[in-house]
Request: fold
Amino acid sequence: GAGVSQSPSNKVTEKGKDVELRCDPISGHTALYWYRQSLGQGLEFLIYFQGNSAPDKSGLPSDRFSAERTGGSVSTLTIQRTQQEDSAVYLCASSLTRVGKNTEAFFGQGTRLTVV
Amino acid sequence: DAKTTQPPSMDCAEGRAANLPCNHSTISGNEYVYWYRQIHSQGPQYIIHGLKNNETNEMASLIITEDRKSSTLILPHATLRDTAVYYCIVRVWGGGTGNQFYFGTGTSLTVIP
Reply:
């Protein structure tokens, strides 16, 4: 597609349930990032995938959070046993990373997660 | 963690230049300065980036001091649609680990009619 696509755009879930958020990056982008943004706050880094390298998971807030990137393309962020404090907008971005190429990250429109 | 500091908010009159400052006193030699903005309820949008030379594109100009410890994003003729939160980020160019974009709290710019 033309841009980063995220689905669903909105998700309401009950506390304790698991949720999966999907990100389709721009074709050919080797880097993929997940961020979350709580209401009125800045962007909080969660996880970063770069090609076939081991992902940087340093931003994941707890072991309830995990992410996969299959085939170097689509990524899924999974939150297990959701809590109310998980309510936020989850943003995905992708970028090229080759030296000499533009490496700005392009963001999707996010998934708004509400845990009730 | 964010390596930049920005004023939390600024106002600018419509049609005037908006000058948004950013301090990055601990920037390394291989780190670029990136600017993004986020309009309410949208994903962040790339504006411009640079290493040490001043840069200009169709959206803005980026002025980086000679010691690279600070920079200024200039929107030459601000419009109401430029009202957004503006993020200044330092980031290593290219691939590898540690290549994340760390967003600080940004500057909330309000363009006033």
